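Entry, Tuesday afternoon. Goal for today is a structural model of the target with flavin-adenine dinucleotide bound, before we commit to ordering more compound. Inputs were pasted exactly as handed over by J.K., no edits. I checked the ligand SMILES twice against the vendor sheet because last time a stereocentre got dropped in transcription.
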Amino acid sequence: MVEAWVVGHVPQAWRDAAARGGRAAIRDVRTRADYEAWYPVFADSGLVVATWPVDYGGLDLTPDQARVAEAVLAPFNLGRLNPLGLSAVAPALFAYGTEEQRLRFLPPLVRNQEKWCQLLSEPGAGSDLASLATSALRDGDAWVLNGQKVWTTWAHISDFALCLTRTDPTVPKRKGLTYFIVDLHAPGVDVRPLRHMGGEVDFNEVFLDDVHVPDEHRIGPVGEGWRVATATLAGERQMVSGAGSGGVDRIGGAGADRLLRRATELGHSDDPLVRQALTALYSEERIRSWTNERVRATVRAGGTPGPAASIGKVHGAALNQRLQLAAAELLGMASTAWPEPWLDAMPYEVRGMLRSRANTIEGGTSEVNKNILGEKVLGLPREPDPWRDLPWEDVPRS
Ligand SMILES: Cc1cc2nc3c(=O)[nH]c(=O)nc-3n(C[C@H](O)[C@H](O)[C@H](O)COP(=O)(O)OP(=O)(O)OC[C@H]3O[C@@H](n4cnc5c(N)ncnc54)[C@H](O)[C@@H]3O)c2cc1C
């Protein structure tokens, strides 16, 4: 059935490219815009989320059936769009959403018709997310949100956001939090793009000024937002590590295949030191991509990533930084200076290298992920937190 669908619906040029040269050849014949335009065809098949119920956009396949389907699709590199929606929003809705919320929000999310982001971090709350200050006050059938979020990836191109707020400042920090779905086009939402040091915009500051959110857009019980957040964060880590449903094998910049091609183009392929460095990076990237493939297969077959997602996050971030640095070093002096206009003329490799600096921060820093691994996987004692049981309003804040 899936093979017949591929023949009937995946464009001939992509199938030919896959047969000729695998994923790399597909990238040569398929632009991002082509893929986005075609994507609703993929979503309508139900194969994007094959184990999900039909009413939410899936096919209700068993995990074993989904694994078989995934193996048939794999050669065509059909990455999933709306990655934060799939990896963070969907788990929250499955675990804590109402049936009405799932029916309303999941199908357009799967079709990439409504894009999603996450309003979690604030200027004073990143690693220690539970200390956040954005408030939500009840007003009849609605809630009124006020506060500032920051580093919100894709807020400038999103329609909705998951938003973690404080509904009770008189209890310890993890107890007074509540999760909401926020319409980013609602009055009072102000999205201000921020630039990465490589020049591009993909994250934002988001100001919430008396934003009204209907109570039916609350996910989970009042005061239980921390539990909902933990349901979403493992999914995000897995996505940011490159193992996510976004289907990306890399997290900013080119991968080892391209690095090998560039080394040849630039005349470095006979240099033994370059060869040694590239071979090591290539091997490590292959190992990582197989590991990621296993995580992806587990998730698409209905499993959850769990704390082990932190392993891929920590390793993938460090590896990508080494890969992108090696790519920039191959350019020699061209990686340090280039003509005006500097932003447009910046070599791709330099852009990738600069972007990769964020890999050890986004989706939870490497240090914090190592703490998670220590506590949840290795069973080490919990990190001390002297403020843990104090009411949030009594905890000192900068
Ligand atoms: C590219 C990018 C995209 C992002 N996208 C989003 C998004 O879409 N939505 C969102 O809500 N947020 C997003 N973030 C924010 C991100 O989650 C935070 O930056 C991150 O959690 C770290 O928080 P912080 O910046 O406040 O740093 P801090 O928490 O202030 O950390 C500063 C330093 O102290 C270390 N540190 C802190 N606590 C500990 C500890 N307990 N043990 C050991 N070391 C510690 C950290 O590792 C870090 O090195 C994004 C960030 C980046 C860079």
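Confidence is low (pLDDT under 50) at residues 243-250.
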